[in-house]
Amino acid sequence: MKPLGLSQHRHGKKVGISRTSINKIETGKTIPSFKTANDIANALGVCKYQIFDLDGEETYICHSRNCC
Prior knowledge:
434 Repressor (Amino-terminal Domain); 4 helices
């Protein structure tokens, strides 16, 4: 979260989850639920497909008109 100026603590507060949960997601120790992934993306003001590798190939492109 540093490039956006958000600490894990501040980002967790925005999303409604703990700093520890943010850290586990960032380090790949846990996979967030769809709701949590969506909440994280909304808190950052981006599409969830931009921050989560949903296809495991780092190539997923959202084709929704309301996305990205």
